Each structure stands twice: as C-alpha cells, then as structure tokens.
Amino acid sequence: MSAMSHQDLLSDPSHPPAPGLADWLALADELGDRLRLDITEREQANASPAPQIAMLRDAGLLTLTIPSAWGGKGQPWHTAVQTVRRLARSDGAIAQLLGYHYAWLRIAQAIGGANTQALLTQTASQGWFWASAGAPRAGRLVLHPRPEGGYLVQGESGFATGAAVADRLFVRGVDSATQRVVVVALDTRQAGVEPGGDWNALGLRQSASDSLRLVNAAVAAQDVLGTFQTISEPPPMVSTLGVLAFQSLFTQLHLGMAEGAVLEAADYVRQRAQPWVHAQVAHAQEDPHIQNGFGQAVASLQAVAALAERADAAVSWLFGHAESATPAQRAEVAELVACAKIISVQAGLAAASDVFNLTGARATRRAQGLDRHWRDLRTLTLHDPLAYKLNEVGRYFLGGEAPEPSNYR
Fold first, then answer.
1. What Å distances lie between residue 209 and 132, 189, 269, 274, CA to CA?
2. Do domains 130-230 and 237-399 have the same CATH topology?
3. Less crowded by CB within 10 Å, the N or C end of the chain?
4. 195 CA to centre of own chain
C-alpha cells in the first residue's frame, strides 16, 4: 500500500516530522505490510491477537512511551498516537490494542503514585502489554482490602478490550471499606481473571474485546497506583484527564482507518480497476468521477488530521498542567476533543464507504478485504453515540454548559 513521506495523506513540507518520528512511522508501515498479508484470514477466524501483540513487543513498540530512565524508548505521546494512526491504516484492531496500551500507561504515569516507576520499569524490562478491566456491567468494580495489604477485586465488565491477551490490567474500583476510588495494576496470570471468550463483532474482530469476570483476583500492595476521593466527592483534575486522552485517541484511530481505506482503494484503482464505459478514458485513475471522489475523501481527511492534531496538543497541554488547570480550561479542551471526534466519525465513515463507488463491484470480493476499514470504523464509532457528542458541543457553545466529567467526556 502506498505510504506518504509524512503522516498525512498529503504532505506539508513546511512541517516535517519531529526528530525520530519518521523512524517510528516507517516501522509502523513495515509492520502494517506484514499484518496485511493474512488479515483477511485472521479476521474470518476471529483469531486471538496474541501473535500480533508479540510482533509489537518484538518491534519495541510496547515500551515506546516509557521514560528512557525507566528502560523505555522515552518517546512523547504525539509519536505514540501517530504510530497508532499509521498502524490503523493496515489493521484497525491491532492499532486499537496498541493505542489502548499507550493510553493506560499515560494515565498511570499521570497519576504518579509511589509504585508507578517500579511498575513501568517492570513493564519495560518484561515487555508487558497493558489493557483494562473495561466498563463494569453494574455499578463499579469492588476492591476488598486484604489484611496483608492490597486487594481482592470483584466485578464484571461487558467489554474489556485486550484483557484476554494482556499481562497487566488497569483497574479502577471502589474500596469496600472506605468507599474511596482506587486504581491498581492487576496481574492477569492468576486465578479469578476470567475473559468471556464472547467477542464476535462486525469489525475490530481481533481486538479481544471480550466480557470479563473478576472473582477475588488478588492485587499486591505494591501494585496499587493511587487512592482518590470517595465516590460521593468531586474527582481531582488528574483523574478526569484519562477520558480525554481516550477520546482523542479514538479520533486518531478513526482517521487512520479511513486513511487506510482511501490508500488501499487508490492502489486498487491504479492497478486493477477498469474505467466506466462512458468515461471514455483508458485507465480508471483518469476517470473524472473517480478523481473527484478521491479529491473529496482526501480533502475531508486532511481537515480531520488538522483538527485531530490541535485536539491532541490541547490534551497534552492539559496533562502538563493538571495541577493548575481550571475546570473551565478542562471544558474548553474537552469540547475541542469532542469536535475532532465528531468530524472524524462523519468524514471517516463517509470515506470508508464511498471508496466502493470509486473501485467498483469487483472490489467487494471477500478476498479483497476492503470492507474491513468500514467495519472497523463502524464498530469503534459506536463506543459512545455521536448524537450525544453533538448535543454536548451545542449546549456548551450556546449556553456555556461545561460537560461533567464521566467515562465518555
């Protein structure tokens, strides 16, 4: 699949990649080429992504954002999300898993508890892959204190993306004794961690987004990342930032998947498509209808890329000012992130669907696999309803109503 010299579909020579970024994008392209070789077969088999996680580990991507002093590559968040976006052009599910891994590590580092450095140092040395316990089906996960320290974790989640193949789970729950919110790192290689094996969806089929049961799963005292307010008290700023990182990450994933659809469709048009009989041209890529269609898709995705970059920079600023940022500033960043996500959903779905108007009937063959980009996008964009994002931005713009931090904003 054709790749551009920089991270966008159309490069800007006035803004070359940051030092080192080009190397990581090239690595993501190389891994993407390998992932595409058998992606159709892996999807149809609904296979475990464990071999692909091993590929990411062997390539050094799992330690990309861990500080170099702790054994990692020491790369900034911007490099991480651009690498994820680039990988999403080839394999949306594996890119989602890698992006989530980076997000959980970022949130753990932002919490900054006494145990964080040791846990991330171990992550770097052992090549651990992180996921989370997901969204609880009823209420919150409950953490029962143990006499010797640490906790026993109890609860169920409907979706726990990556948990079935993770080494550590980022778990947020409530201490049953104090009613305080506690964040822990849970070792998955123990009794009581029970993935449901029930993920079989339209898209993102290798994201291992199974349900999860935690039945008295043990957490040692040294694996407690932080203790916060009681569930009846307002959360501190730092504990509300993770959701913005995730919402911004979704935009990058949407963008990468849509770019993948356009790039793959363009290759198909250049190499295999036939011009329509009434176009009166020799090659499909000379057909004005096809040219216009790609022009619309590329222009739309370039706009998404610009807004995504701005939203991502705002989130990074907020993480860097977590101690001094005001609720009003958080609201401004949250709505910028929401705008980027809205446009990435609308433009991404349109581009990933419209490529079939530009490639023709033969491009719909199962073996071609061009549909996976739309299916992955359609699945990921349902994580929270677009209607509520639109309403949130409209309420804020018209009446200044700041969004109350939640799992989705």
1. 10, 18, 34, 39
2. no
3. N
4. 20
C-alpha 377/C-alpha 251 separation (Å) is 11
Q: Which two tokens stand for residue 11?
A: 């490069």
What does each C-alpha distance from 37 to 1, 43, 90, 138 come to in angstroms? 11, 12, 10, 40
**Residue 4 confidence (pLDDT):** 47
Amino acid at 66: I
Residue 126 CB neighbours (<10 A)? 14
Torsion, CA 270, CA 273, CA 277, CA 280, rounded to 10: 10
Task: State the pLDDT at residue 19.
Answer: 77
Predicted confidence at residue 5, as pLDDT, reads 46
SS3 404: coil
CATH architecture under which domain 237-399 falls: Up-down Bundle (1.20)
Asked if CATH classification 1.10.540.10 holds for the domain at 21-126, the reply, yes or no, is: yes
Q: Among candidates 105, 18, 117, 113, which has minimal Cα distance to 65?
A: 105
**Token couple for 79:** 């490099």
Joined tokens for residue 215:
């039945």
Q: What is the pLDDT of residue 16?
A: 83
In one letter, which amino acid is 253?
A: L
Q: What pLDDT was estimated at residue 6?
A: 64
> What type of residue is 377?
L
Distances (CA, A) of 126 to 48, 123, 147: 21, 5, 29
Residues of the chain falling short of pLDDT 70:
1-6, 137-138
Q: Please tell me whether the overall predicted TM-score, pTM, comes out greater than 0.85 for this model.
A: yes
Q: What are phi and psi of 120, to 5 degrees?
A: -75, -30
Q: Are β-strands 130-132 and 168-175 bridged in parallel, bridged antiparallel, or unpaired? A: parallel
CATH of domain 130-230: 2.40.110.10
